[in-house]
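Format is sequence with structure; example below:
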Amino acid sequence: MLRGCAQNVRAALDAGHRFRSFDTLKVLRSQVIAADGIDIPAEVVRDLFAIYRRLILKSREEVQWTLSRLIKDQQLTDEELDWLIENWESSEHLVNRLLLYPQPNLKVLAWAATRYEEGSLRERMCELVALLFPERGLQAFAGIDPLTLAWGISRAHIERDSKTAALESLIPHLSADTVVKIAMALNAPALVRAALQE
């Protein structure tokens, strides 16, 4: 059903047909959510991204949030990622899709490295750290606020033991409350034990 709905919406957009776009997109979003945990076929993701690309920069905020859910956690092609990267300054929703890309990707990492080095997206520093930490390591972020660094490491795409080891070195710079919250988020009681030994 998801495949047919995505094809129909894309075809209607391509043909310039008028339709109740928001209601239709909500139905499409509900089908994407229902498919959670099941791989969505690549050809369906292409249709979903085409819909997203066509509408995301010219729709009202409520519609943009609905569109963003269509491609959340999906692997995109190089061409699709290039479009997000070329247009990232046009919408927070594009920034979200890049910062929260579901797996390591060289294009996304290069984009994140540029944002970090030029000091843009300061309000999203935690997510930039999460993307860059696996390849750069702890020493690369010596100038970052320990709280931001700790939450960035906790969100990085690395093994929990590696996160815990890196976070233990930050414990002297973190409040007990922060250590407990991160430990609970990671299911890592070793962090609390390490904090008690400080």
Notes: Residues 6 and 23 are 14 Å apart (CA to CA).
